[in-house]
Amino acid sequence: MTAATLEPTGSPAAAAPVAVTGSKPWRLPIALGVLGLLALVLFGLLPGGGKETTFGISTSSDLVHLGPVTVPSKATAVVLSVLALALAAYAGWCVSRARRVGRWVPIVFAVLWVLAFLTWAVAGKSTSLVSLLAGSLFLAVPLAFGALGGLIGERAGVVNIAIEGQLLTGAFGAAVFASIVSNAYLGLVAAPVAGLVIGALLALFTVKYHVNQIIVGVVLNVFAVGLTSFLYSSVLKENAATLNSPPRLPTLAIPVLGDIPVIGPVLFRQTLLVYLLYVAIVVVAIALFRTRWGLRVRAVGEYPAAADTVGIDVNRTRWGNVLLGSMVAGLGGAFFTVGSVGAFSQEMTAGKGYIALAAMILGRWSPWGALGAALLFGFSDKLQQVLGVLGTAIPNQFMLMLPYVVTIFAVAGLVGRVRAPAADGEPYIKE
Predict the structure, then answer these.
(1) Which residues contact 306 (CB under 8 A, 6 or more apart)?
(2) What topology does CATH give the domain 130-414?
């Protein structure tokens, strides 16, 4: 077997845009066209004129200070919506000519649509784009770690529904250990170990005893909620000063890079946990698609019987990947305590593990795709916070459900015919 024969769907090579053949996939152009028309009508034509929108694009500590940008709200929203419609028309032209629709088309369309929405929503007010983007990246951290942990396991054929439990136990472990030693960085060490506990149970029941992977994952999530809630109520509440007062990770600005306007504050003025995410994405991407280990893992996830015939220990590979993925997801749980809140509370992950699972699917089981999807969901989460503070005309109830609406829409409308690794969810019993 060669690398080419083992390349699964969802890998960078397999996920590249392909020429349109057979029935023409008009779904993307139609969806973009409808969204573009909605943007033109709702954000451009219907609102009254005379208002201006101000966007901050710099901070006081930037190397080069750029003043805020003020634009006429109605005219800008119309122009952005028309450009989005032009992209939808271009996508339709590509489909009609049986040509590839580049991946840049929906990405650029999304940017134009969001800018049109922001121009309308912030009309008569001002907001900082830098703060919005930096916050989006920050909120995407647990989702990206969770998605990475999930895809590491699923590339080997084990469905990891237990991401929620791994995030929650990681948050608990980081809070308790960091409180005991009064060191947030050591809390980052405890989080993966706590996530490993859930991962070991997941591997034990799914790989060794061949229990249904979906059921085990759901049960482990409930188990994690019950265990951490019990320990919180019976132990942490009574000893909050010593066991639930972890220090928070400080913001670390990278010299020179952190002073670059816009890019610097967003990417290079973050905590160590964010920088670890950068490293994890690159390492996992290289390991999965550029190493012998990655080839074996993908072979196990696609063709376990064939992998077994060439000497790969299928169940041992699955054990290792589930444990490794659980540690990665557990590290993401540290975000909720030492990275953000500074204390553990019951069910504080609030379903983020399931959104991480959606990010993994939307990202086509690819590290870079998972990161992009996590950033999308992180942006929607930050956006609802920003617009809630600004007091826009959008109902508060809608803003609270925005991250989940974006999750459902993205997975249902954008995933398309992408499939998981062929052996995903199937136990392997050696004959």
Answers:
(1) 1, 299
(2) ABC transporter involved in vitamin B12 uptake, BtuC (1.10.3470)
Give the span between the Cα atoms of 59 and 131, in whole angstroms: 9
Tell me the per-residue pLDDT of 117-147, one tens digit each, with 9 for 90 and over: 999 988 888 888 888 999 999 999 999 999 9
Distant-in-sequence, close-in-space partners of 402: CB < 8 Å, separation ≥ 6: 380, 381, 383, 384
Q: Delimit the domains of the chain by residue range.
A: 13-124, 130-414
Does the pTM exceed 0.85?
yes
Mind spelling out the 3-state secondary structure of the chain?
CCHHHHCCCCCCCCCCCCCCCCCCCCHHHHHHHHHHHHHHHHHHHCCCCCCEEEEECCCCCCCCCCCCEEEEHHHHHHHHHHHHHHHHHHHHHHHHCCCCCCCHHHHHHHHHHHHHHHHHHCCCCEEEHHHHHHHHHHHHHHHHHHHHHHHHHHCCCCCCCCHHHHHHHHHHHHHHHHHHHCCHHHHHHHHHHHHHHHHHHHHHHHHHCCCCHHHHHHHHHHHHHHHHHHHHHHHHCCCHHHHCCCCCCCCEECCCHHHCCCHHHHHCEECHHHHHHHHHHHHHHHHHHHCHHHHHHHHHHHCHHHHHHCCCCHHHHHHHHHHHHHHHHHHHHHHHHHHHHCCCCCCCCCCHHHHHHHHHHHCCCCHHHHHHHHHHHHHHHHHHHHHHHHCCCCCHHHHHHHHHHHHHHHHHHHCCCCCCCCCCCCCCCCC
Q: Of 127-141, 202-216, 402-416, which has the strongest mean pLDDT?
A: 202-216
Residue 333, pLDDT above cutoff 80: yes
Region 13-17 average pLDDT: 43
The C-alpha torsion from 168 through 140 and 276 to 152, rounded to 10°, is: 70
